[in-house]
Structures
1.
Amino acid sequence: MEGSLPRHLCHVQKSSAIINRFHALIHSTALIALIYYRASFLLQNNDTRSGHTPIIPWLLVFAGELVLSFIWLLDQAFRWRPVTRAVFPERLPEDKQLPSIDMFICTVDPKKEPTLEVMNTVISAMALDYPPEKLHVYVSDDGGSSLTLYGMKEAWEFARSWVPFCRTHGIKTPCPKAYFSSLEDGDGSEFLGTEFMAERRRVQIEYEKFKATLRTASKEGGIRNESMSSPTDHPAGVEVIGADQVEMPLLVYVSREKRPSHPHHFKAGALNVLLRVSGIISNSPYILILDCDMYCNDPTSAQKAMCFHLDPKISPTLAFVQFPQRFHNISKNDIYDSGLRSTFSILWEGFDGLQGPVLAGTCFYIKRVAFYGSFIQDDIDILKLRESFGPSNEFIRSLGQNHKPSVGFLYQSVLEDYLTAFTMHCRGWTSVYCNPSKPQFLGSGVTNMNDMLVQGTRWSSGLFDVAISKFSPLIYGPLRMSILESFCYAYLAYFPLYFISVWCFGIIPQLCLLNGIPLYPKVSDSFFMIFAFIFVSSLSKHLYEVLFTGGSFQTWMNEQRNWMIKSVTCHLYGSMDAIMKKIGMREASFLTTNKVVDNEEEKLYQMGKFDFRTSTAILAPVIILVISNMAAFMVGLARVIAAGNWDKMFVQVVLSFYILIMSYPIVEGMILRKDKGRVPPSITLLSTVLAMVLLTLGSTALMY
């Protein structure tokens, strides 16, 4: 009877789907009316048009509206059929019948990714509630650091106490740092006897010694290893740790060879090396991939994933189970939108109602065979396999008889997860999104503006790489997957184009406001209601989604503000970077997000104050836009009051005012704040000069 019960259930959010579809219908009708209004102006003859708006600003604003409408249309695919899922791990077969799992953890630089934090992730993975002999943890040290190898050996020694302690007492938090630092930890509460407390104290003392050992080694630069000369130039190294321990997961250190003259393809290259090494050592049918700071917060994540992977109805085509990224250091205010609320509470649930979500780079259990090709039987050329995988007979045999030479993560984008998942879905694979109430994994979110914008630029560049490649979702996808699934992928690939809309809306109407040139219908014009409806409809729908997913009005404000900031900077620079790589003007690069906690930055973040300590190139565009809007609003408002032409200029006044309201923390950082995190006066001065030049040149151009 138990075997016949379902191990998971899928629930379609019907009420949300109905609301989303109704809103999409009404909003798209309004957009059609807007496009008609703009197009009718362009079709007027020159004599009729001469008494109105110059054609160039009109075209630029229209272009911004078209781009925004295009991205909005793609975005609606996520909202067509959102679903949620429930799992029942207690219905899984016995431990001896469960498949083995390889776990991949990637790290690069101990200076940006502290070894102690990485080892906590490693230890938490080893302590999953799963048969220990079926777990194999592989750590990719892409920097070839002797400190990482030393840390793994010390982590193994501590894990010999920690893993049995977790299994014996049913500890619910497998990460030792999180467990011991929790002030109200209920783990093992049913065992709060003298024996349990004594063992807990013993393990905690061992953990303190482990921490002290790693901190000392970090200060001293680790254990010297002459063979590993530098993070970008070192030989390969593989070391199996604790292979003789039957009741413990296998731990393997892997450092691939890197030479400056040879492209190494960043994280994708490191993961593909782990695929090859693990294929020879353990060759587990399933793989968990984690970022080095994303520790296991619930020991049952593997069981939850197996509820899907072991379902005979969906397993033949199921490539991976994606869990959401959650973060332990997110403040209630979350001024940088580091919690990625929209991504994992709206987009991925919508993705899941179609063919399944995209890979999120971490926190997913993937079927090994999905990396090796399609599930369709093909003739295999052994020579081609050797060209792709190398001369290892053991590894070639591990591929079986059903795989193509195109293996592993793809290299055409620095966002290897997005492109790899896209091609998997194009080959017919599916995926699911599992979002339990307790976060299965917890990582470190960004807590300063510099990291937020650097990370955002990397994401924008990687996504736009795909948009302008042969894998463009709107060209490559529709014939290989459902149209709605391809729209979802297209939204992610093309959303960096938001920079066109935000720059057009943030500069052009303001220039025209300064010069008394209307770009929108009069308040008395019937088309005014179309523009007003679209503006209110967009904002209110976003607010509804924020409140529906547990956010607040402040959350909505933060997300609106960050959308503007990222569009002006990350999306602009990311798109430019992708285009320059496409035409061969620069090579791909990958900047690791800093995981080191800065107490001063953390304090500002918890206080809800932006930390503006970043490069001039990143910050200046935002300040220029804000100063331009301040000048346009003050001068334009005075001009409107004097001329009494509110009817013509109302929309432009409101638009500029709205931008300033959303930009208040930036204005505060320029004018009111005196702390170290304020906008540097030099950047404020430079941006003011550039904004005045921009407004002067723009106003001069409008006169001709």
2.
Amino acid sequence: MWSLPASEGESATAHFFLGAGDEGLGTRGIGMRTEESDSELLEDEEDEVPPEPQIIVGICAMTKKSKSKPMTQILERLCRFDYLTVIILGEDVILNEPVENWPSCHCLISFHSKGFPLDKAVAYSKLRNPFLINDLAMQYYIQDRREVYRILQEEGIDLPRYAVLNRDPARPEECNLIEGEDHVEVNGAVFPKPFVEKPVSAEDHNVYIYYPSSAGGGSQRLFRKIGSRSSVYSPESSVRKTGSYIYEEFMPTDGTDVKVYTVGPDYAHAEARKSPALDGKVERDSEGKEIRYPVMLTAMEKLVARKVCVAFKQTVCGFDLLRANGHSFVCDVNGFSFVKNSMKYYDDCAKILGNTIMRELAPQFQIPWSIPTEAEDIPIVPTTSGTMMELRCVIAIIRHGDRTPKQKMKMEVTHPRFFSLFEKHGGYKTGKLKLKRPEQLQEVLDIARLLLAELEKEPGGEIEEKTGKLEQLKSVLEMYGHFSGINRKVQLTYYPHGVKASNEGQDPQPEALGPSLLLVLKWGGELTPAGRVQAEELGRAFRCMYPGGQGDYAGFPGCGLLRLHSTFRHDLKIYASDEGRVQMTAAAFAKGLLALEGELTPILVQMVKSANMNGLLDSDGDSLSSCQHRVKARLHHILQQDAPFGPEDYEQLAPTGSTSLLNSMAVIQNPVKVCDQVFALIENLTHQIQERMQDPKYVDLQLYHSETLELMLQRWSKLERDFRQKSGRYDISKIPDIYDCVKYDVQHN
């Protein structure tokens, strides 16, 4: 086989010219021509006439598609069929000539792309009635996602649950949209976030994914690849208000999309690419092509490919599969589309197309033709044999990264507004209420602001709540200028006779107080930026677990694991408890492990499964806690002794003779004296903070994570109050909290 390269500006003549010799049907030259002008069929030097009769295969598409590398490669191979001649209708002819003037052909490969006159192609096929490789009428449907979904549904093909919002004045009943904080309701169907919003036109690639506030909210905006980006994260959480859209549930796919390419109902090539929603960074190889990974389709998926190909009447057809929860869903059908850069696919595709055309047309041309049968390629699967071992599974249990100190504040509230809030959210059912969602926290903040405003107007009025506590409630809720459900919560507990009476176990006196609510505000315990960096570094280091995945830690970037991740053999699952700091650690770890970029929210939603962690780790709750109580009681007893540790204390506290314990005890000597020192230091620190607060220089001082001096003082004053009890004894359970705050302020303030 040989071919002549086309020189520049030679568009009107043939692009290649091949001698056919490998079909065993003689070696006459087969030309290929381009109908820009009336250029003739090129023949080889010996002026051999191609064998008669010839089946003419017409290619009718925009130049960008008909001259693309995959198309060129496939047509080159198609020309090797003895009786086939390929002509390409030029874009100039397609756009400007009436169809009567288009050259005639026996078989037409024609498909829509931007700017293509599909109406003319349909008129041409009615006029000449060629054998169509891809049905033309169906290509109108493929341009409308609503029609695509309708056809998929009629064929019984699994697709995500969806609803259509038609903003069409003629159909008002299809335009009911109710938007909530964390869901939308479309014509009665409710879609909790995360959900996907797709324009009804398949030509419009601006698909948005909306994230729940518990993961940080906002949305991911997908678009046609521009350079190295295919999507961008946006803080916007509300849906688009103009245009018609399909809303569908978001499928958690572990961050890969599967692209399937059919050539007829019995052939499907599949490859995976990184989902554009993950971080929007397009992975490219050294040649600048988007990186794709080989994928094996399951038997069920091959059946889906067959159904899609037949239902849409497109021999050559590309569509997208989402693999989620052990199931495959079709989310998009693109029509005519070739695999890029796969020689095997080019060979297979040309062979199948050539055979399809010959099978259909050979009889009417009296061409002797029997389909060549070939042994199917048997896939050879390497097994673990001899000394070759394969890593089957890696399990890691990981703690969350550096966090802000956990804090809480309690206040008794009696204002009617708090009671109505308690009732509104169903608190009376159990007597307890947890508020975490942004709109709920907003209601609490509104009440606090309102009461403070009233207190300013008349300080001695009806309001019993303490101004200081309300101020603190307000400042914590206002901390970051926005709520994300990850970092704060308010608990309300109902006490029928007031909090004090219940706590002191008094019998209600006849003149007992009315009911009240105990409001507990919890905040802090969030992952710090330092914690994120730790988790990401750990993820990068973790790539070393797989051969070829050594990462920067071993001198060359880790590819082994990343390549493996996108194949069917790799099943990565990341579970995290429902606490924000744990979820964010998991997302940052995934980001480092899989070399992702950008915001953590999209990674969190797609890669991290929020699981109830109870039972995932071996721990029998009850037996454990009783043991802990015994240990604590023993510690409390020994650490209250105002005397240096003696031999029997060493026996009790360090029975195993652990070096670190013995060293610590040697340093401490008298536990009460050390507690006195620690207490004196805390008093000194709170005094210094108060001095700073009086100093006008520090009036607007912002500490780490937008904490104020007031909040820092409250943090330490609370420890000061709780550590030394009224009796003068120390509450040693506060020692870890003191350590936590010391470590945090040393690192960050």
3.
Amino acid sequence: DADTVFCTNVSALQGSSPVLLGLLDYFQRQTPHVGFFQPIGANPLNGASRYTGEPKHVALMKHAMGLKDPSESMYGVAEEEAKRLLTLGRFDELMDRIFVKYQAMKKAKDVILLEGATVRGLLGNHNELNAKIAAELDTSILMIMDLNRDNPGTASEIASRALRHRRELQADRASVLGLLLNKVPLAAHADIVSGVAAELADSGLTFAGGIPYDRIIGTARVNEFANALGAKQIYGRPELIDSGSVHGFLDKLEAIRAQREAEGQTFFRPLVLTTKDRQDLPVRRLPAPGRPGAVRWRGVRHHPPVHAIMARLGPDTLPVLEVPHGAFETARRMARVNPGILPTSVRKVREARALFGRHVDVDAVASGMAVHREPRLTPKRFVWQIEELCRAAPQRIVLPEAHDHRVLSAAAEVAARGIARVTLLGEPGEVAAAAARFNVDVSRCEVEDHRSSTRLDAYADFLVEARKKKALTKAAALDQLTDINMFGTIMVAMGDADGMVLKTPDRRLISSVFFMCLPDRVLVYGDCAVNVEPTAAELAQIATTSADTAAAFGVEPRVAMLSYSTLGSGAGPQVDLVTEATALARAARPDLAIEGPIQYDAAVDPGVAATKVKGRSEVAGRATVCVFPDLNTGNNTYKAVQQSTGAIAIGPLMQGLARPVNDLSRGCTVADIVNTVACTAVQAAGLKAAAQQATSAAAAA
């Protein structure tokens, strides 16, 4: 996977451009394949330019840093759409869309720089939203904290704020890489940076330095006003601008300049806001060099002599912008402009990169990224992995009950997303009518009529052969095939689809697992649906089979054999059974990490494991496969976890069958059906691959 860092401004401000430019510049000098990604594409640019409508920092990174990726691939969801989804409480849908585009970028990059959301008008807490996004994307956060130029606070206060922000982010399961200060008052820069470094020395929070406030970056330029106003530049070229009045303005501006010089503020470059009927104003300002510009609004025709004078002066005169708004609206919009860096802000980009290079310990950031952190298999990543496996080897999955709107909706979604090739069982006219009634497009699905199929005779012959010990007649077999589930079973058994089977090979034990999608990880629970009181040998087989199922779905198997005792802390017949099962499983599969007997808390919680388990254990505190000693324990535990944590339980998935068959509860949702179809397809592909390997091995022997 690509190395990643998630920059988020914990002050909920939008002045992080120097950090982003500096980091991207550093990464581009280390590797050629660097990407920039905004989960929420914020601050779309206005005005008439080729960047209009693009998120501001996406356009900036493309233009200033030469990134070649299509703009739409560099952000997950546009700002307004993100607001809409969050307002409707559809965070999961938002994350699904972000995740898919993010994973697409990760495939092609060595390093990805992400920027957290700073969307104006967004409901809720920005830091909470960014923490949840970072946790789902499994990336570490670099906190950017802006300081107040007039009252930055003491080093101790700044460090306390940073640690509070870290706790808030970690409360939402985000990993925090470090801290970088921004807009540090220049006069106090050295004291603040050294003081904060000392305050955080023993905190475990990496401190990467502080970028000072810079007047070039912190002052708006004509191109920024033009972007905000939707203005057309009619004379001159952009320079720095401010604001001023009209009547008698020259004397007033001179007084302001003198006052600021007396206060040590030598940087004063005003913007003049005037109407077209006062065209003498910009002309009077022409002789003075370095004066930045004028803004006019519509309403009065060009005065020919003034137009001629401005045209003769050429491009080096002060810039004049024309805006389509009235005086009040123009002034209102100008007042809301925050200084920033646009794709065309060449001087500001150069200044930002220089500031970053002088004041940021980028090696500290890179070292934090390089520290090994065990990847988290979040529910979003787990589901994405399953679907990627499905799309790599599409399987044909049969769905009966095509009259049910949930089945039809799931079939349409599965087919549209390329998860599987779907065959619906039912009379084509009835299926089409049901789809039309529920407004579902099943045009990508095949429909097989189980009552008039050309395969009925072959299926009946297969069924007669399979049940010849029971003297089943062909007429009776044909009668059984009128049952839609039986037809689907034989369809799979004969290889016309991928799924169920009539009997098990070599009398192997049939068991089940649930994939428990917890907020920050995915665990495998087995057996919670089939075996009531397994023997030690059966429990060992459940453990090894569950481990193989976990691995097939991208979950690294670390198996915990659960009990009320942890490595001898308790005694009793049930503990003895789990102890024996653990020994049998280890003997059968020495390649697997298996621990037991062990209690659930010691299996999944590193803190508890450190207390209860002495010595080294690959499983304790890190278990991914939890094997319960009996059905009573397993079934109640999975339901308790599901109900009390809001976890998604995918399953039960059956294990030990020659072909996969999985059941759905009567209360299943469309999402349940989609997930089960995807899991069934993965199981089918895995069984085919195993069969091919066995055939190849036999041929080689």
4.
Amino acid sequence: MLGVDNDPQDREQAVVALWKYSLGGKNCIDNIMKYRGTVNLIVNLLKSESDSACEAAAGLLRVISSINLYRDLVADSAAIEEMTSLLTRSSLSSDVKEQSICTLWNLSVDEKLRVRITSSDVLPLLVKFLEDEDIKVKEAAGGVLSNLTLSQSNHKLMVEAGVIPKLANLLKANEEDSKVIRKVARNALLELAKDEYNRILVMEEGLVLVPLVGAAAYKSFRPALYSWPSLPDGTKIEQSSKGPSRYGASELLLGLNVDDKNVELEEAKMNAVVGRTQQQFLVRMGSIEIEDDTKSNGEWSSSQRVTLLPWVDAVARLVLILGLEDESAIARAAGSIADASVNEHMRTSFKEAGAIKHLVQLINHPSDTVRLAVIRALDRLSISNNVCRAIEAENILHPLTNLLKQFKSEISHSLTAMVVFEYISLEFYDGTVNGSNKGWDVVRHPASANGNDMVASELASRNNYLDRRQTIAGGDLVDSTFLSCLVDILKTSIPDLQRKAASILESIVAIEACVEQLISADIESGLEAVFRQKSLIEMEYRTEGDKPDLQILELEEAGLAVSAASRLLTKLLDYEQFRLTVKRDQFTRLLHAVLVSSIPLQNKEWVAACLVKLSTLSGQNSDFENPINMEVTLYETIPRLIEQIKSSFSPEVQEAAVLELNRIISEGMIDSTRAVASEGGIFPLVKLMENGSDRAVEASLAILYNLSMDSENHAAIIAAGAIPVLRKLVLSQRSQWMRALRLLRTLPT
């Protein structure tokens, strides 16, 4: 009766009867599958215009595909393609959707079939059905998507289809009617979150990865049951003049003892209170982590089991875990805090939830694993200035300095790196960082009514920074052991460590009392080690095309370290006692080698400045005849000016750069024109000649004319499109037309 030559009503009655019969179990399904071609006839009925026939056909295929033996047969009968076509119909009953999507759910169990489902047109339909009114349709769509995420190759397509926001909404909706929806949504998001980029997208939807540490770990939690309530960050709440209630309800229910008119809690503090209350309640009731069983974690190992929680609950739970006794749980919670601190909102939330005090206390934990995770968390949190001030208020500098002093003995390089970076973030967050003033250059807007307040605030910040630096230098933080440790870090082969140590020393040398100690600690050998970067030597003989991406990254890290060391050396040269001992010729040769190396252009600025200062102290002339100045001009100044002409969006910056470049070339420096050509300066000069101001056009013409004196540059000038631009200038009779004509005559046209 399923035959295509039979009456449509007979076919419909047959498929309905077979569907009902198949519900009897595997024996019934086996009896149906004895007849060859049955699946093909059932799939053909998916084209029927009758909803009843389509529902029965899809339902029968759902039952058949639940048996492993017949799953491939269903897929090979074009069921995926026909169901995709069926689901695209504008008017389709929820029952048909449910049965069709559930069939796909069964098929998606097979890894090789997931690729077919993802690459078909059904993926955007499944994402759309996550918002369907029928809860069973949403469950089925979520189930298919959850299975599809098990194949990592599908992740990119799924993310591009917009699956993360939809799944996040289902998980955050907290619909009690369907635990299935929450489970499949969580499983899918956990699989997607294994990729770092996708993890950030998940967190942007207000969900945070939280480690599952086991209910046993929470047994060490001890709530403060009989103390007056305080905010999670430790702020005490004032008691009102009213006495305590007869049965202590005023202490238990804070609202009974606080006048609402006098209490104004920020939203972040309110969320912290709500989150803490909910998580502590779950712990005390023994209900925490009940919903998140091992089956909801896919391929996560037992030591990496995680769940997803809305950010309010996640922040509170992570802070709660920090107060437990289990070392593994603490380390994992601190790591999750570091990963979740991706924006100002999350960093502030952790501060308000009281994470700072716990983390600072854990710096002295005996476990290296815990300390590393804690320092990493503080590192990420300290990106925010407000949070950084809260960290400093916990007197963190002493334990950080003590950790640094252990560098020679027991502390690992990775932990040292985090300590150094944290030290920089805390100590110099409102001072000079990487050679630029972060907060002291105040530009008052004419329309600002609070300009004086801004200036006063910045001056106070600067004075506070200077006072703090003097206090630290004069105290027991910066001593010979500490400085010797930083110098030893400079001698390591890790550019990131070298950069951070040099940045700390750069600020410390502003205090003259520390310079003598640095000289005694052999700061020169530390600086030499930075300037002798292994990656610089290995890259010297490579062409641009021979450099793998990883080695290019190493070169960039080396450039940052060299730049920081150059700033440090430049500041040390301000002191007479250092100038008397420094090996100027040695550092001149090292910096010259760095200057002509392949490090990024922006890192050569301080190298050039340091070279110029060394040459000045040596009594050499400051003109171009000085070989140091010549090298600086060829390898730093000219490339920097060309980069400004090429990439700046400001006509004023481009004009200033081309005028300076023209001045250098017009003074006849040897190899200056060759440097312009080799740095790719011809194309941007031609473009500026077409679109720049009159002064910029005139300077560009002068430079290009000097370049045209070398016939090797003719092909590049013509390829840059100079000929039509020059003809246009000549015909327009602009003030530069004579220069344009002269250049045009030198080119082979």
